[in-house]
Amino acid sequence: MRAKLNSIRIKLILTYLLSAVLAGVCVFFVFMTVCIAFYYNYEDFLNWVNANVVVFLLAVMLVFIMLMSAFFLLLTKKSIKFIEKITQLVEQISEGNLGIQIFDERTDELGNLSKAVNKMSSELERLIAEEKRWEKSKDEMINNISHDLRTPLTSIIGYLQMIIECKQNDNEDYMMQYAHVAYSKCEQLKLLVDQLFEFTNVSSKEYKLDITKIDVAELVRQVVAGLMPILQEKNICCRIDFPDEKVYTSADGTLIARVFDNLISNAVKYSPNGGNIDVMLRKEPFGAFVRVTNYGITIPEQNLPYIFDRFYRVDKSRSNSCAGVGLGLAIVKSIVEKHKGEIHVKSNDNKTVFEVRLNTNT
Ligand SMILES: Nc1ncnc2c1ncn2[C@@H]1O[C@H](COP(=O)(O)OP(=O)(O)OP(=O)(O)O)[C@@H](O)[C@H]1O
Ligand SMILES: [Mg+2]
Q1: Which of 4, 47, 176, 347 is most buried, judged by most C-beta within 10 A?
Q2: Average pLDDT, stretch 315-338?
Q3: Where is the HAMP domain (predicted)?
Q4: Which amino acid residue places its CA nearest to atom 17 of ligand 1?
Q5: Please, which residues have CB within 8 angstroms of residue 233's CB and are 6 or more apart in sequence?
Q6: 89 within ligand 1 shell (Cβ under 6 A)
Q7: Lowest-pLDDT choice from 44-53, 185-194, 300-309
């Protein structure tokens, strides 16, 4: 009701009526002034009015309309100024001056309009900043991909060249050695292309989740079993701490397996030989909680905020023993977010901990 009384329509009607009343009062005073002026020959004045009644009424009407218009313009001046202010603001926004705001306490339609323009202005600013960030990260991504493709390709070309030269000299031992290096570089390339493919696939909005009811303990056990070769290779013990009760989540099983596969294989990759890793599962009121802990190599605090970014690696040197693309955790985050879950990382006191929360209903 208050909003209706406060509406522009009502305000305009009231302003119109007020202008009419003020104009009427003014006309009355003008009439009285004229009467006083003609006080001594009042009859002459009345005779003139009687003789020129049409002219008199027209003159009164004209003065009334002019005064009413003047009062109406005066009373609506503030609102017109406000509309001009909004127009200027919209013009400034269209010239790229984003984020500017109009401050006013009005609660009528004009107030709502200014609020909507303010919202549009800040939303546009946010979208353009986001667009710029995307543009920058796309450029970085292309740079990283080019770098990661060029490095193994250059060495593959180099080793193939050497094989050709060995063949000419009939040096078979060297030839085999170079062929192996070229082969491992090809595998590195394939890993990069596979990871890239998986990342674009999983982070695409069109990706449809195949949701089923999943026994989380069973799924993690299968992942750990699949990672046995790399666990044995580094002589690492994977200590499992699961509850007796079943813990279920509704999720895309293949994708969630990728989450734990990435987290546990990272834990193995960034652990010293002969170490331990811990995988803990707990039932939570709304789903499942999984914690993967490894010891030894930690992630410096300043690197933690970027750890889930595409192509981010703490050790920038791509030639170290823990070769990787830097896409694993970006894939993990994308999958967890697709399931409306949460993932957090802590790294201090000689250990790195990744915690994942998955809801029962996705
Ligand atoms: N469990 C961990 N312990 C210590 N450091 C880790 C751990 N997991 C990830 N990191 C750090 O985070 C970086 C990013 O990890 P991510 O899995 O995204 O990439 P990656 O393992 O280097 O490559 P890949 O794409 O092959 O997985 C790693 O390079 C590593 O420095
Ligand atoms: Mg990884």
Answers
A1: 347
A2: 78
A3: 83-129
A4: 328
A5: none
A6: no
A7: 44-53
Q: Which ligand is nearest to the CA of 329?
A: 1
User: Whose atoms come closest to the Cα of 270: which ligand?
Assistant: 1
**Per-residue pLDDT at 26 exceeds 90:** yes
Question: What is the enclosing helix (H) or strand (E) of 265?
Answer: helix 253-269
Q: How far apart are CA 90 and CA 107, in angstroms?
A: 20
**Distance between CA atoms of 300 and 282, rounded to whole angstroms?**
28
Q: Does the C-beta of 308 come closer than 6 Å to ligand 1?
A: no
Instruction: Pick the closest to residue 267 from 288, 238, 241 (CA basis).
Output: 238
pLDDT at 319 over 50: no
| 117 residue type, one letter | V
Question: Separation of 323 CA from ligand 1 center, angstroms?
Answer: 9
Q: Which residues of 217-239 are buried (b: 16+ CB within 10 A; e: fewer)?
A: bebbbebbeebeeebeeeebebe
The alpha carbon of 313 and the centre of ligand 2 are apart by a number of angstroms equal to: 9
Domains of the chain: 2-123 (no CATH), 134-203 (1.10.287.130), 211-359 (3.30.565.10)
At 355, is the pLDDT very low, low, confident or very high (cuts 50, 70, 90)? very high
pLDDT at 322: 62
Dist. CA 210 → ligand 2 center (Å): 24
Q: How far is the CA of 331 from the centre of ligand 2 (A)?
A: 9
